[in-house]
Amino acid sequence: MFTRLVQWWLTTKSFERSGRIYEVTGVAALDRFLCRIFGDTPLSAYDPNRTESRQRIREAYYKGQYVEVVNIMASLIHLTLLILILFIGHVWLAVYCCLVMVVHIVPVPIERHKRACIMQWLAHDESLEDREYVLGHMRSLGQLRHPYFRPKPWETEELYEKLGAWTFKRFAFWLSSLSNKLPGDEVSTANTLGSRDMARIDAFERGTRLGEGIHLIGIAQHIPFWWTFALQQYWVGLVYLLWPLYLNLYASLLQRQHRARIFRLLVRAAQKREASTPT
Questions:
Q1: d(CA 97, CA 166)
Q2: Whether residues 200 and 120 fall in one domain
Q3: What total number of domains does the chain contain?
Q4: I need a labelling partner for 225 at 20 to 30 A (CA). Which of 181, 211, 239, 261 fits?
Q5: How many C-beta atoms surround the C-beta of residue 165 within 10 A?
Q6: Eight-class DSSP state of 105
């Protein structure tokens, strides 16, 4: 029943499918603006004069549903947190909580706008091509060896498994399983590598850095809540904060586990590229 409810919610409704509502409300413009900031290529509506990568559409379909589910979950977590704050009458903390909640609400219409575009492309299979899409440039050794993000000598896949990263991996897999599936697909491809191509591995590793950064910000965002609840000895609030702490902390550990698994491959590939490049 719960899965069906989520899948019903994730299905684009008739008033969304043309994408007009998202153009009028400025959601599409906001999406294009954010793509310019982060250097992404915005997903445009179906155009009979263009073709699109079938792989890109398929991956965007699953990733968008996962992102929407995660942000709705985060919004509900902060809504509950807001209610707990109101019980102790802390107005400014409640305002701050609302601002954090907005950060998680905004991506929901953006992802629904993208999915409206995706559904338009899927309805015109003749315009989809079986080709790779550009993932960005391969990074150099210097770019890979970031002081913080590069795995340290003691970081191994086995270490993070022992620390419990597998628990969040299972949770993320369950969230992905809630998505609607395309014909012929049994599982969602969200958060999976699914290729040995070095360009895709490089893009996946970049994604782990972004994911870890987002979850570390999530931990930092909750410091005012921890501080206020601790000062007021509000034990209900402190216990509740353990749930978002777990989500953000273990999501970060999972990103580092991914990098521990694939980082050496990227370094060797970068070394080969730089050795073969004329000086």
A1: 30
A2: no
A3: 2
A4: 211
A5: 22
A6: H
